[in-house]
What does this fold into?
Amino acid sequence: MSKSYKVIGRSVPRIDGRDKVTGAAKYSGDLTFPNMLFGKILTSPHAHARILSIDTSEAEKLPGVKAVITHRDVPDLKYGISPARWDENIFCIDKVRFVGDKVAAVACVDRDTCYEALRAIKVEYEVLPAVLDFLHAMDEGQPLVQEEYARNINTEIHQEFGDVEKAFAEAYLVRTDTFLGQRTYQAPIEPHSATCMWDGEKLTIYSSTQSPHYFQYYIAREFGMPMGDVRIIKPHVGGGFGGKLEPTGLEFAGTVLARLTGRPVRMFYDRAEMFAHNRGRHAQHMEITTGVTKEGKILGAKANFIMDGGAYTSLGIATAYYAGALLPLTYEFDHYKFDMHRVYTNLPACGAQRGHGAPQPKYAFESHLDNVAKELGIDPMEIRIRNARRPDTVTPNDFIVNSCEMRQCLERAREISGWDQKKANRTHGRGIGAATGSFVSGAGYPIYRTDLPQAAAIITVHEDGTAATLYTGATDIGQGSDTILCQMAAEAMGYRYEEMKIVAADTQITPHDFGAYASRQTVMSGAAVKQAGEQIKAQILELASFMLSIPADDLDCQDGVVFSRSRKAKTLSFEEVARKFFVLKGPLTGKGSYHPPKLGGTFKGAAVGTSPSYSFGVQVGEVQIDEETGEVTVVGVWDVHDCGKVINPRLLHGQVHGALAMGLGETVWEQVLFDDKGKIRNAELANYRLVTALDMPPIQSEVVDSHEISSPWGVKEIGEGSTNPTMGCFSNAIFDAMGVRVNSLPLSYEKVWRALKEKREAEDRSRETP
It folds into this structure.
């Protein structure tokens, strides 16, 4: 029997909506402080070079220059976001490793002086051979990007579950396909910015960040400070998508400059510098082999990948593991082998981008599965339904799946897209394709080893009960988590959403939370918030029991009203009980925290990909191709998701639309391009082609009924899982429309045109052959 909820499940207005639409919301780059300086970082013009000398004397003489720093002025402790590979310095000491690597920094009275000071710094380089092609990075004789890693291998993974060769031997068909995924960049609308302040003892940084906690932890580590002396404050954030999860040179250099000058220093990247800092999607070479029965049942699969990591590790170790770990989630098979080499190159470092490691491998596997279906003569939707994962199963790599309505998603997508009718009544140049996806609802383990809870929350009720404030370290980066968590708090308290306030993401005021990554906050932060709200509700009911002379277990509180469950009796308002509580006992507060259960197997890398729960979904895309130009027009998209209990339908469907926009862009247009010296050719939004509103097709987004036993109210994620099917569904739709496969992303108009041209020429030769 379903329970009626008063707050969750409703499309309430965003709690930050008014500030954002009126322009009152302040982002990092909007903040000003008395006596504030501006800071910029000097970066390398070479992909690989030895630093022979750095002369800052002319820059130091310029009027308005308050400080100039190089590697001699900062700690030489290596840092990174992944403890297994700390390989980056605040400034390069002996070598630069990509165009854009950090060399020096300045603090000046204004922006113009910053740029003038950077030009005045003289750096003498000895240019070295560079590794620019990741497919040859491991070749003998290639220069080493990081000297301690032979053959430029940053991460090497070899995992096997079951007996893949035995599965292939028993298969009716064994097929291998190879695909190539491109480098892409998150391109958030807000540039990176950080303002650093030093009061002689404590450091405060206002930063555009996805995780104030990780920033606090890693900055404190780098400078040998107690975490309590480092305060990170997140203003409004204009998008992150994974690119703002780890500290940058801005925070590290800004800290040193603020200490030296005794003044606030605002550090900032321009758009080209954002592209150079990167931490976006890896390029990947993906070889997929699958063995199937005559009926299309998957017996075993093998994935062999090479990944372009760039010059530093960033979050790349996790990315490498995610690329293979999540592949077995949407389909059931027992035998699986995964091999991966993540290699260093003299290009900007790659990291976590929406879907973290999974979208490109999913594109490859889903495209490959359509190839298998065609060879067997099976409908692509049917082969997916036959292999769809069921609830209460375990993947070959030991991921426990509780709730899973993969089959229901497929059948509903088949129905609402008109799949069968469109397949039966094909028109020239029109195609339809499907793909599945899944993602973690929060990573089972944090990035660094700790026994801290994944999330904690505190709720305080105003003394007269007319407002309640949620204190949380959870991080709203535009996805709406502040709104979601306030809805969850109000529901758990029996309160009204309209009276909720929130203080979020300030490490001095709010309790610990790991922040916005791995689609974790609705489940993990939400669990802590729910616990805090239930504590308040329990205290309200206990006092109301005394006030009404009714047992507490016969009372409930919903929508700000305390009432008896079983009898007609006087009701009390939340406000009058809360005020009475304050008079008798002092502040009315609740607190909560969340630790995930022990998850995963015991093999190397078993922790990556573990989660308390997983979302599942399917997308169907329909395209029309102009054979004369290769232009691809998306006619429509249908998305059906199993994401558990929906807290806010409007925000959920907004996440789906946003994921589809990003996925469509990566499928057809987006690619970071380099010249033969390793310099980015399109590090601006004029030539890095992003999807706009004019490109968006009609979208029908639906959810299926699902309840996850491990999560508060049965919730699961949506924000990243809805990215994972997109490339595959469009790839398969284009394949269906033109009958030939383009095996490398992006599936640009030119590639489509060339594939059609080659197809026509092959058909002409076939007709000419007697």
